[in-house]
Structure formats: C-alpha cells, structure tokens
C-alpha cells in the first residue's frame, strides 16, 4: 500500500476524504478493527530521567554502605 502498513485511523480517514469519501477517524478505526488492520508504527521509547533525588526520601547514605558497627544504619 501507500503507507507500507504504517497508516493509522487518522491517516486512513484523511486518505479516504481526499478521494471523495466522507469518513472520520472513528469510522476509519472501526473499519480497521473489522478488517483486522493494525498500524505497524512502534511507539517511541521514553527513558526515565534519572539523577533526581526523590523529594520525600533524602539520600542520607550517599552510597556509603560500609558500616563499622551494628545499629549505625538501618534501611528497609
């Protein structure tokens, strides 16, 4: 096809409208579902933005896990 399988309901509705058919994205989506058509676009992967300390839980140890005596540090 024209889109190589990447067209979703909005794209199909736009293509149909340009060809003279009256079609909204909801109808296009319903027809896609009935015909078993699925857009093959992968969603972009969103990475977590690390490096920010949690506001409610301060980092008291600062990754210094070596403890010389019992009952100095507790975690859970």
Automatic annotation (TrEMBL):
Show the InterPro entries listed in the entry. Answer: Transposase_IS3/IS150/IS904
- Protein name per its UniProtKB record: IS3 family transposase
Which taxonomic lineage does the organism of this UniProt entry have? Bacteria, Bacillati, Bacillota, Bacilli, Lactobacillales
